[in-house]
């Protein structure tokens, strides 16, 4: 159903979301290029950051281009196969974000709590394994949701009160009782969401405990500043994600759910590069070197 049926608002949305999408893709691509081109950034933390930027590009590209085309053509229709494909990639990249944020929290835990063993523990083989495991878990989560939705065979000329196909919206459109499917889907969602959040909480619990025993205030500030950007992104991602969940579970207003989805799916990936570039001196230096190079 898109965002609004008003033609004047659709013209505004077209320009707004096109510019936000371009900023998101460009910002995350600059992070990837800066990390890959600067040898000083060839560390586990920035390796995970570049993968997070790649996942953010995929997450945004799953929904926004289709919405922009729909606004331009005034044809808000998606096929059954297209809807399932969009849902699969949306869950894949969303879960990838969750897993990578957890991995980055573990990286900060090792760097602050075990600094002398950091290079030994966070070796290239382990970093590659963590990214690969995050990807495989995300695929498993995506396909489990897909298998549940594929059991619903009575979709035809239905309306989805959002600008993308999500599993909760599709289950609500079923023609029969889906209580069992709902239980399974929420269980899978709870596992894929609860485990990453638990890992992040545990890592930061250990980090805070280690920082508090540092005698100098300068050392405490340096330790806190090294994980400030990651903590900001975690709060933004999970805060908006919780807003999407509450708006769909508690509120019965489709408009509130759409607004929460826009903030989570569009604004969060757009702000991530700014958070890391503005709060990180290494990234700013690498971006300056990258942009100052002759074409």
What are the defining features of this structure?
295 residues, mainly alpha
Overall description:
- Helix 1 (7-37) packs antiparallel against helix 2 (44-61).
- The protein is 79% helix and 0% strand.
- The termini are far apart.
- With 295 residues, the chain is an all-alpha fold.
- The protein has helices at 7-37, 44-61, 64-73, 80-113, 118-121, 124-150, 167-172, 179-212, 217-226, 228-249, 254-278, 281-292.
- The longest helix has 34 residues, at 80-113.
Can you give me a brief rundown of this structure?
79% of the residues lie in helices and 0% in strands.
**Unreliable runs:** none
Rg (C-alpha, Å): 21 Å
> From the structure provided, what is the oligomeric state, counting identical versus distinct chains?
single chain
Q: Roughly how many Å apart are the termini?
A: 43 Å
The helicity comes to over 70%
Order of helices and strands: HHHHHHHHHHHH
Write the layout of secondary structure elements.
Layout: H1 7-37, H2 44-61, H3 64-73, H4 80-113, H5 118-121, H6 124-150, H7 167-172, H8 179-212, H9 217-226, H10 228-249, H11 254-278, H12 281-292
């Amino acid at each position: 159903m898109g965002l609004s049926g008003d033609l004047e608002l659709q013209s505004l949305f077209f320009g707004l979301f096109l510019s936000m999408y371009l900023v998101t893709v460009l910002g995350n691509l600059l992070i990837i290029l800066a990390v890959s081109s600067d040898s000083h950034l060839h560390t586990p933390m920035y390796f995970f950051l570049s993968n997070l930027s790649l996942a953010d590009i995929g997450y945004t590209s799953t929904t926004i281009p289709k919405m922009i085309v729909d606004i331009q053509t005034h044809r808000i229709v998606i096929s059954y196969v297209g809807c399932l494909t969009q849902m699969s990639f949306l869950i894949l990249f969303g879960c990838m974000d969750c897993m990578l944020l957890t991995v980055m929290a573990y990286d900060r835990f090792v760097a602050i709590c075990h600094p002398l063993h950091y290079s030994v523990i966070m070796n290239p083989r382990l970093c590659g394994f963590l990214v690969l495991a995050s990807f495989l878990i995300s695929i498993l989560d995506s396909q489990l949701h897909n298998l549940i939705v594929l059991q619903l065979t009575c979709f035809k000329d239905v309306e989805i009160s959002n600008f993308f196909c999500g599993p909760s919206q599709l289950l609500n459109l079923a023609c029969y009782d889906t209580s069992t499917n709902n239980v399974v889907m929420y269980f899978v969602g709870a596992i894929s969401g609860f485990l990453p959040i638990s890992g992040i909480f545990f890592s930061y619990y250990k980090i805070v405990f280690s920082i508090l025993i540092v005698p100098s205030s300068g050392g405490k500030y340096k330790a806190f500043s090294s994980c400030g950007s990651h903590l900001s992104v975690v709060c933004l991602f999970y805060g908006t994600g919780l807003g999407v969940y509450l708006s769909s579970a508690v509120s019965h207003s489709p408009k509130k759910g759409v607004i929460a989805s826009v903030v989570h799916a569009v604004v969060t990936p757009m702000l991530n590069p700014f958070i890391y570039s503005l709060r990180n001196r290494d990234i700013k230096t690498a971006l300056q070197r990258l942009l100052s190079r002759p074409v």
